[in-house]
Design brief:
The complex is a heterodimer. Chain A is of the alpha+beta class. Chain A contains 12 helices and 12 strands. Classes of the chains: A alpha+beta, B alpha+beta.
Chain lengths: 350, 423
């Protein structure tokens, strides 16, 4: 009996309810999308910062010239990317030139920012040349030199421009080892390296590490504040819709009271109507919100879209909780009127 | 008569009107806050990213190839290639001078210290000079690398003084020689006092920094500079920026020239310093662009989502208002008002409510955006003044658009049907 009342009430005022429904659904959509984006923004932003390359440098300790290669294995065991670099002075066409030995198979993630014309790696008997070197010796891709066949021309705007890069050979040691550790575990990796390699100087690249931490934190807190603000404002907006659902129906309330319904029963009627509406719009908004979050993720971070990032299914509970609480609170606040309505006055049309 | 109708209608049931206006205001506040933050966040983050150091390196057009490992040159220094110190300040006269947040000229040398050669750089730490418009400007290492961790003090070199024998030394040098701030060290046969120790983790750890004019005197290269680091706020590179400027049409070239791409800023520096080449440091410049691009894009899409929902909210509120007042429409029609008059009456009312809501909302939204700015970036955001009026306009449009459809439906119905309370 009770439920047939509720269902009929919904059927009778389709248009009016559609409005309340869509308003709450919009709020739920926005909440789902923002929570989803917020929940993994930190990880995504940190991925962006990987482009800066190394954030730890293992350099020779005082009085030494080289770093043992063991540093690479130790860093890799910590889950970091590491590559050895060895710098020597060689000669090309009778002129001295800096020759960098690079372990291309490992250095890839550390040299993402290199602008390369041609190949990014060189095998045995091949080399890459910096743009200044290429211009100085008029080298072209495919040309033979005494340091190997030129496979690519590198532009970085820094020291690499005046170097010739050859594959790291069978050397026992490196001039330095560059390490890229996950921003969140940076100090841990640094400490592990420093413990395992007492004869080296393990340096944290402060500028990279701190800028990353700073920017990630600021973007996160901006998103957080905006999410909270928008959520607060949209839900506030929805409350008026739900109050109106009760206020509009004073006459019906009067009739119900006149034929003997208790106030509690009438309030329950309205409350269940609101909750059904709330649940329906939350579900719709949740679906739509995930879609929006997925779309935003795919637009902005296409490289991580494959991993299904951008969608966080776990936000349903908080979103449903907030929207249902808002719907219920708004209805109950308006329902206080039920007690005050006098059937005789209402039905006379005042 | 018409105005009286509108004002009377507005006075009636003030509570309902207030609710409508409040709903519009909330939508407008969401839109304003989102847009306000979005429009300025790029610049804010851009400034944060400047703490990574210079993104442009200016060096003399050299005839010889530099052979340098760890700051030590393996061939005799050629004193023929240099940038005159007197002209360095011209960097601040380029088209994008306001985007150049700092620059630092330096002269490189090496000195034996503790049994090995150590690179020594003569630099401006924080030099004041007079700009072309007469205002005092600052340049030097501190304007490019202000975030360096210093144990001790930065050297203050506001005025020229080539007898000031103070040095800032890299952390690795300090550890190797066991030096603390206040200690002395011997360079070029002179006793320098350690003012501060620089810890960056990078190449700077192995360097010694002294005042530019001191090093110029000691290595006998007066007025010469080997390189200038430049920190500039840039627009992330897009496809257009990657075109070759020498092959652009004049119109495209103007557009490229007047956009703060890293390449156009480099080009303008080369214009004022013809003896030098300016190269983007891609490690900083490239990633800066990428990170900024992501953040801008993310904020833009979130703003779009928020705008869409704010618009929908205003729309639905207005639709509800009209829906609730179908009875009134019926009475007006029954007493002889033409459809046009009723439509005009309601539109005027709705537009007024939209404007009021928009005004309150954009004001509140600006406050909120500023609050976010202060919370996150510790100073107020720079929000374009146009934002408020634009949001008010949008609120009016959304309100009228939301009211239009139900109004049309109500007008098309027979008054008798409406008044009976039917569909």
């Amino acid at each position: 009996m009770f439920w047939s009342f509720v269902i009929r009430a919904v059927r009778f005022r389709k248009r009016r309810l559609m409005l309340a429904f869509s308003a709450l659904a919009v709020a739920a959509t926005l909440a789902t999308a923002l929570f989803s984006v917020y929940s993994d923004i930190e990880r995504k932003m940190r991925v962006q910062f990987r482009g800066y390359g190394a954030n730890i440098i293992v350099a020779p300790a005082a009085g030494r010239q080289t770093v043992p290669l063991a540093a690479v294995a130790i860093a890799e065991r910590q889950g970091a990317v590491a590559a050895p670099f060895l710098y020597t002075v060689g000669s090309l066409a009778g002129e001295p030139v800096v020759v960098a030995g690079i372990d291309f198979s490992r250095a890839g993630p550390l040299t993402n920012y290199w602008r390369v014309d041609g190949a990014r790696t060189a095998g045995a008997g091949e080399c890459l040349v910096g743009s200044t070197v290429a211009a100085h010796f008029r080298l072209k891709i495919g040309q033979r030199t005494e340091l190997g066949i030129v496979r690519g021309i590198v532009t970085t705007g820094a020291a690499e421009d005046s170097q010739v890069m050859v594959p790291f050979g069978l050397q026992e040691a490196a001039s330095l080892v560059q390490v890229r550790a996950d921003g969140a575990r940076l100090t841990e990796v640094q400490a592990a390296l420093a413990r395992a390699l007492p004869a080296t100087d393990v340096r944290l690249l402060h500028a990279v590490a701190e800028t990353e931490a700073n920017v990630v934190l600021k973007i996160r807190s901006t998103l957080f504040l905006l999410t909270v603000l928008i959520l607060a404002i949209t839900t506030l907006c929805v409350t008026s819709n739900f109050s109106a659902l009760v206020l509009e129906r004073s006459k019906e309330i009067g009739i119900l009271k006149a034929i003997g319904a208790t106030e509690k029963k009438i309030a329950a009627l309205f409350l269940s109507e609101s909750l059904i509406l709330g649940l329906a719009s939350t579900t719709a908004g949740y679906g739509l919100g995930l879609l929006v979050a997925w779309w935003i993720g795919r637009q902005i971070f296409p490289e991580s879209a494959a991993a299904g990032v951008g969608v966080n299914y776990g936000v349903f509970l908080p979103v449903a909780g907030v929207t249902l609480a808002v719907a219920a609170a708004a209805t109950l606040a308006a329902a206080a009127r039920i007690w005050r309505i006098k059937p005789a006055v209402i039905l006379r049309g005042e | 008569m018409f105005l009286r109708f509108v004002s009377q209608s507005l006075r009636r049931s003030p509570r309902r009107k207030a609710m409508t206006v409040a709903a519009v205001a909330m939508g407008a506040a969401v839109a304003t806050a989102m847009l306000g933050v979005m429009l300025d966040i790029g610049d804010r983050v851009s400034r944060e990213l400047r703490s990574l150091g210079a993104n442009l390196m200016v060096t003399p057009k050299a005839r010889s190839l530099p052979v340098e490992i760890g700051g030590i040159s393996f061939r005799p220094v050629s004193t023929a290639d240099y940038i005159p110190e007197a002209q360095v300040a011209k960097i601040k006269t380029t088209f994008w001078q306001l985007n150049i947040t700092g620059f630092a000229p330096s002269l490189k040398a090496a000195a034996p210290l503790g049994g090995q050669n150590v690179p020594v750089e003569g630099v401006w730490f924080r030099r004041r000079f007079r700009g072309t418009d007469g205002s005092m400007l600052e340049a030097g290492l501190r304007t490019v690398n202000g975030e360096w961790k210093i144990n001790g003090q930065w050297i203050d070199d506001r005025d020229r003084n080539d007898a000031d024998l103070r040095a800032m030394i890299g952390g690795a040098v300090a550890r190797r020689l066991g030096l603390k701030p206040g200690d002395t060290l011997q360079l070029f046969g002179q006793a320098f006092t350690v003012a501060g120790i620089v810890s960056t983790g990078g190449d700077e750890e192995d360097r010694i920094y002294v005042r530019l004019e001191v090093l110029q005197r000691l290595v006998n290269r007066p007025g010469q500079v080997d390189s200038v680091q430049v920190g500039a706020l840039t627009k992330p590179e897009d496809d257009f920026a990657r075109k070759d400027p020498s092959k652009m049409t004049p119109k495209d070239y103007d557009r490229w020239y007047c956009t703060p791409y890293i390449s156009s800023i480099a080009h303008q520096i080369e214009e004022v310093l013809p003896m030098a080449v300016a190269k983007p440091i891609w490690r900083v410049a490239d990633n800066e662009g990428k990170v900024l691009g992501k953040i801008r894009g993310l904020m833009l899409l979130i703003s779009l989502a928020a705008l869409a929902s704010a618009g929908l909210t205003v729309w639905s509120v207005m639709a509800t208002t009209v829906l609730e007042r179908r009875g009134e429409i019926g009475i007006m029609q029954a007493t002889g008002a033409s459809n046009g008059l009723v439509a005009a009456l309601f539109s005027a009312e709705v537009a007024l409510e939209g404007a009021a809501g928009g005004l309150i909302g954009s004001w509140a939204g600006l406050l909120l955006a500023e609050w976010v700015g202060r919370q996150v970036f510790h100073n107020a955001l720079e929000i374009p003044g146009m934002l408020g009026p634009v949001v008010v306009g949008a609120a009016i449009i959304a309100s009228v658009a939301g009211a239009a459809q139900p109004l049309r439906r109500a007008l098309l119905l027979e008054p008798a049907v409406t008044l009976r309370g039917g569909e």
